Amino acid sequence: MVILDRNNGEVLFANEALAKMFGVESVARVAEMDHTKSWVDQAQFAEAMAGFGRKELLVNFEAHRRREDDSRFWVLMNTQPIIFEGRDAGIIWHAYINARLTLDKLTSAIENISDGFAIYDLDDRLEFYNSKLAEMYGLSDEDLREGVTLQELRELNNKRGLYAGGAQIELPPLSERHIDKDTISPFADGRTIEFRQRQINEGGCVILFSDITKRLRAEEELRVAKEQAEAATEAKSEFVATVSHEVRTPMNGVLGMARLLLETPLLAEQREFAQNVVSSGEALLTILTHLLDISKLEAGKLDIDMVSFAPAQMITDTIGIMAPSAREKGLTLTCDISPDLPRVLMGDVNRVRQILFNLLSNAIKFTDKGNVNVAISGAAGDDGKCRFVMSVKDTGPGLAKAEATKLFAPYAQASADVARKYGGTGLGLSICRRLARLMGGEIRLKTAPGKGCVFTLSMALEIGNENDAVVSLPNLPVPGQDQSRNLPFAPRVLLVEDNSMNRKVAIGMMQKMASETAVAKNGQEALELIISQGPFHVVLMDLHMPVMDGLETTRQVRRLESSASRTPIIGLTAAATRHEIDACLEAGMSDVVTKPIDPVLLKNAIRRLIGAGPADEGAEKDEVLSFDPLRQL
Fold it and tell me: What is the mean pLDDT of the chain?
């Protein structure tokens, strides 16, 4: 409250509440203030003071006031004339108008947002808008006068040719218009405006107008960049697959001839040379396989094949393959299988075995003395799934934290010394982790210098029905073991192969498997031989050939045959991908062997298909494929 002299406006009295309202430290400071500056609207100040001097009463007079720090507030002023200390004076009460202050702040906020804003009443008449809306549409204050209808504004914009393509925008009936909806409208100048309309409680609607041109442009650039990145990844994947195919074809000749050479009488030094050629070729194939694997994973082209499998049998089979390598280094290779492990699980057995094979290979390679242990458990959870846990522990040198951190990165190895000493691409563990995550699992490493390494694969797998057929894995050749003797007898074999070197390799292998081998250089020749000289007991079919490829040739052969008599056809392919293997089987092939051809796998496939006795080293009696799952994706 303040008391003023009516004649000269002198402050005669002020209370502490007024001092606090104006943000000054004392009542005395109120008298010293320049009250002319305390009014935001000077015209309003002049009006109020003129009425005060005429002894007019101010009743609920709303005034916008200013403090010395330029902060502003609204007050409600009421006056009453009095005689104070013998002087003609007037008392003025001040009260905050919080609602008006809130409205002022809200109006200021709406005015400063980056979007256009408008409120329409129930009759679609404009009640309020901000300057951004006028700027966005190029409209004047007259165009946006209070009470103008949305339809009138839309007609004005149509006449101005505002919309892209000269479109004439028509509004739906008023009864259908005040609903929550979002609309996008392209403008003729290249901009795109998004309208977000929402109903309000009092009736009518509020509309927010956003210029989304930059956002759409950024989204389009992101989409194009994403497509280009995907195309680059696809091109890289196709390139790697092509290189793999092109390298595998001559490698089939190199390895094939070296293996045939090992079947002949050789001096000890000559045998060592030939064996080194085979070992080096197989190492090169491992590098190719890793490159192909990582490119397929990056391109998202790897699917998980869920089948029933026996986990204990898978573990013991894989350990059996790796045992000779461990013995050669003087290592003890052990296996602990928990009694809680279900007999049958549902999962991608080839991927699980690939991970185990890689972890075991690394453990044996990097451990110079001691032992390597494989432990597997699988307790059933409340959800009916098995928590499958498989760990590989070694007594190797172990790793420092910095080395372990980068171990799962592509193309990374623990150190340069390790890369020089042991070689490799540094892709194996990266592939294993990606495969694990693709199956919903994870691989973790626990290690310390001098403490060895423990790699643990954990994932949730469905428990299979023990009555379900269990997929058996192909029996892989054990390193260092001669399995090429006493090969089974196949009466008549037809070899279909366009590459001369590959023909020589296959014919060399067939000399110990078949009494007669006919040769065709393409699918058309093969069909002619089958018609004129058939039947054959087995057909070895290359895939990529001139005139007629292996897939079409297989389809033609199946059309010629009766359902009761089907010639076994084994596909030979250098493209070691799951997609190509599936294509072979869908075309009607009985089995697939990948190049470079492993004579043991080929021999087992022929034995099984023509019923010429059991395959070597306890090969499975169930119907299985002969391609090596560790070489293909």
Answer: 81
